[in-house]
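From the pipeline queue, job 12 of 40. The input is one protein chain; the requested action is below.

Action: predict structure.
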Amino acid sequence: MPMEIRQPLREGQFSHLEDPPTPRQKDLQWTIPLGIQQVLQEGPSAAVASGRITVTTPGTRVQFPNRRIRRVQIKALSANVGAVFIGGSDVTSANGWEPSMTTSTEIWIDNLNRLYLDAATAADGVQWLAV
């Protein structure tokens, strides 16, 4: 019998059974975290987006664009002079993650605008690719 995701039985829980379930099958359910429920309900994204973000004034955070996504790959620009830092709305050089110039890193997130960029040098930045 093929598995399929049904509407939530109650928040946070889905059935993997076809109708009508037997009494034994009613006990076979699994819990799916709420964030994943949204992805399962919306289906795959066909849109691919990419861009570059740079910092004009070091120490002043720049927010990524408002774009609903599933995941993003981020890599520091190869022309950067100093370090760049990724994080939340409070990102600084002291608490931010420093992406590599040679390898991209994938982050699973629902909207790019949750990420911010700061840099030690003006005009330094990152490039990103999202789906």
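Job complete. Confidence is low (pLDDT under 50) at residues 1-9, 11-18, 26-41.
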